[in-house]
Amino acid sequence: MDKNGTALALLDEFKDDPNAQAWLWKDHTGYAEAAQITQLAAKEHPEYLAKCGGIYSSEWFFSKILHCLRVDPKVFDAAYTWVEHADYMTALLTGTCDPRIIKRCRCAAGHKAMFSDDWGGYPAKDFLCKLDKKLRRLYDTLSKKIYAIDTAAGSLTQEWSKKLGVPAGIPVAMGAFDAHLGAVGSGIREGTLVKIIGTSTCDMVVKAKATRLADVPGICGIVDGSILPGLWGLEAGQSAVGDIFNWFVSYIQAGGKDAGSHDALTQKAARLRPGQSGLLALDWNNGNRTILVDQRLTGLLLGQTLHTKPEEIYRALIEATAFGALTIINRFEEYGVHTKEIVNCGGIAEKNPPLMGIYADVTSTEMKISRSAQSCALGSAIAAAVVAGKAAGGYDNFAAAQKQMCGVKDITYKPIPENVKVYQQLYKLYRQLHDAFGIDADAGRLANVMKDLLSIKERANT
Amino acid sequence: MDKNGTALALLDEFKDDPNAQAWLWKDHTGYAEAAQITQLAAKEHPEYLAKCGGIYSSEWFFSKILHCLRVDPKVFDAAYTWVEHADYMTALLTGTCDPRIIKRCRCAAGHKAMFSDDWGGYPAKDFLCKLDKKLRRLYDTLSKKIYAIDTAAGSLTQEWSKKLGVPAGIPVAMGAFDAHLGAVGSGIREGTLVKIIGTSTCDMVVKAKATRLADVPGICGIVDGSILPGLWGLEAGQSAVGDIFNWFVSYIQAGGKDAGSHDALTQKAARLRPGQSGLLALDWNNGNRTILVDQRLTGLLLGQTLHTKPEEIYRALIEATAFGALTIINRFEEYGVHTKEIVNCGGIAEKNPPLMGIYADVTSTEMKISRSAQSCALGSAIAAAVVAGKAAGGYDNFAAAQKQMCGVKDITYKPIPENVKVYQQLYKLYRQLHDAFGIDADAGRLANVMKDLLSIKERANT
Description:
The structure is a homodimer.
Chain A: H1 31-44, H2 46-50, H3 61-71, H4 73-78, H5 85-94, H6 106-112, H7 125-131, H8 135-141, E1 152-155, H9 158-164, E2 171-173, H10 178-185, E3 192-197, E4 201-208, E5 222-224, E6 231-238, H11 242-253, H12 262-270, E7 280-282, E8 299-304, H13 310-334, E9 341-345, H14 347-351, H15 353-363, E10 367-369, H16 375-388, H17 398-405, H18 417-438, H19 447-460
Parallel strand pairs in A: 3-9, 9-10
Antiparallel strand pairs in A: 1-2, 3-4, 4-6, 5-6, 7-8
Helix pairs in contact in A: 1-3, 7-8, 10-16, 11-13, 12-13, 13-15, 15-18, 16-17, 18-19
């Protein structure tokens, strides 16, 4: 945004410049900048990396800004500061877009911009300047204080009151990422893993701050108060889940008469038994966010014969995302973050029973579904109810609000022992491929393959 | 066939039993029997294996017969002997189906049934009996003498003369496999590699018998006179080529409106530059015949993103078959069998110019196309013309006949240097995957993956 708090995208000068529009979370173009940030932090501030899984991602704040600085300096120079969408929305509603007063949320600052109370805020000015001197100005616009969702960003303006039809002056709670509020709306508490399954997944857990918590490598951050105020919020996730199924249906099947729809493929895939197709896939069509934190990984499908059918591939892709999910759960377990319960929400969790069944079998855990069809919105409403307070008809705290407002559906998906057994065998093979292609130091020594292909591809495209 | 030389398939009793019908070359159900034969030969008769690439294939004579013996003993017991189709056809035309007089051809006996003059014929009776005692009876029906295509199987019967409209009594040349006669019809000679490209490929070269010829591991046989009389015939091949493209179009695309035909996909794929898709595939959807001789290998596709398009996959599959072709050429080279010229024939070679262009770029060799649209039939005609002899309007020898009757088309496909360069990089990665998944001892240590998946699949299907 410029000095007045106006998004550059809304200015005539920049309305056609893609770099002045919102940078989507799944934009990975800043992968080289992410690598540079990781490298510098590893050398000078390993503590920064420890709290974000060991690798700074191309999906995050400084990678994108640094990439913009390099590919479109005009946009970078015109920006007075950069603001996360979750902060921009609350600022807009409360008339606090002015960069000098805008409040930034714990969730975004902690998970994407390396903010931590441990080092008193954002990364050091020196650190940012070593990445690029021009980042000094950005640093100066970032405040030392950030806010959890139990704080009001401000109160609703007259203008937005009219547009939305709710009273002016009511408090607007601080923002957070959709997934994190979805976790709140799904009733997250210690021991409960909330999975938001849509185009990608976000996997969230909370831990009491009294807990002695290890730094968990490969996850997307351990942030004080990012999910529920006063608790550690831990986030992990898969860069693509529903997006992979969409790719197969929309791009590869492309309207084929025998299959061609998610419903038809899901129905046929549901009739297959685990292992029956002989296929195995890696769920990396959009890179791997957790636990490898490597956007330059790509998809893999193995086991095709001359008889392999689309529904078999479709099921293999679902299974691959389930194996990816299990890898995240296992990583949490290895570092003492135990999962007692899994609650799922998001479009895919609600609309695809066979998928939930496969997830239950692969993880050997009962899959519950958040009762609300709009868990993220419900989480926002819970935050609003807490910020408003009991006196205004709301709640004193999140536990009380969640108890009243959250729940799971009656239908749950229980693991079927004979399927669990087959998936344990398949998961071993998945891990073999995962480690061989995804881990540089692995004995498989194939970690170069996907990257070399991307380099060749880049050269072919220039 | 039974004792009268009647094919069991033609008897009422067996007309509905698939095991009594012709066993297609690409039947791999006898893989366990092939492994047993390889194991026993490695222990007791390594010389048998040396002449057939080091591994006895599930596609060959004894693997299939032993498999039938095990899965359908009724058919095995009813068969007096087993006859290759190439021998059955000539016997039928010449009225020599009687198992006591039927002539068997060098090509089939040498490449599929381990016949060699080095050990005086078929594998020893003791050897076969160790595989199964019941094979003794089969052994007794196999003659000590086999015949090249410069010999007459007999002369055309009255019955077939009427059916075919050619004079009775004319000599009928000994048979050979379609591909081998295709090589003859494509003008094969020393230094010329003939590739028959159809659903699968067959790659053939000949070498003077004076040459000191190494045993070439992983090829499908080195047989005296199997292609041209008096020369070593060397055969290699890929278990699936066109079959893989057909699988993708018929099974996976399944009539998708945006693509769905070989022509449409080929046209779009031809517009891509080498390396541009970031994809890499292994051409093992039907196992690997040369150089790994392992039918329990399966397909692999790697490098998919959320934007990968069908034509990119289609091209990657074509490229995979080209890399497979190069692997065969390299193997010949490593053992001193040098390729000076490549002549292609078969449906795909004639009808798919972009594919031939890719083959030229990948192998860095000009691709020529056999002039005849029916090179295999032409090879048969050449054999007939030689067997008939000059006096009857034919030829004295194959060189003279080929000189008159064979040629290549005007259009050839020359390698494009900049494409060659990119494919050299891609081929390195192909070899990395090839070795990691295909070679047990490779450091990649992934050779278990495809096989474990097949074992899991087999258990899931029972």
